[in-house]
Amino acid sequence: MTQPELRRDSRLHGIDIPAQICGRDNIAPVACRILDFSRSGCRVAARGIEALHSPVTLSVDGLVVHGVIVWHEPNLIGVMFRWHEPNATEAAERRREQRKAVSIASRASDRRGGVVVAVEIVDASTGGCQIASAHLDRLPDEIILEFPPLRMSVVGTIRWRHDGHAGVQTDWSRSVRWHAL
Length: 181
What we know:
Thrombin, subunit H, mainly beta, 2 domains
């Protein structure tokens, strides 16, 4: 398997720090170097590291992160992190206000409008909403979300993503009303 062009859900940061990694079949940690990382994963280098099997555990100065190997090359692997993402019940229990079930065709984009994704708003409240789309992986964490019935767009922050759905916290102080042309 060779390194594919990976879609990342956040910006890649170039680093070079020492770490330890354990794979499914080895108990003793292996010294390695994390060469770069993003919110979704990292690139890890060590002699013979491509022989490791998923899942893996990375340790850096006491911080432990779990992940799976998504590609490998000689002495190099790509690790996708496995963050705990709240399920719908956990997210609903933490909300300050109840959301109302809706079905609104909409669009979400990055702040510059370069990436635009068709979404469906499936529930909403004044503090946030849940959106659904097969292409949520294309969006950054901070988005512009259109609310066609209100003729407004609002800045939102994606707080979780799971199975084609995402929870968005909305910031109505940063909304824009659409004007007729």
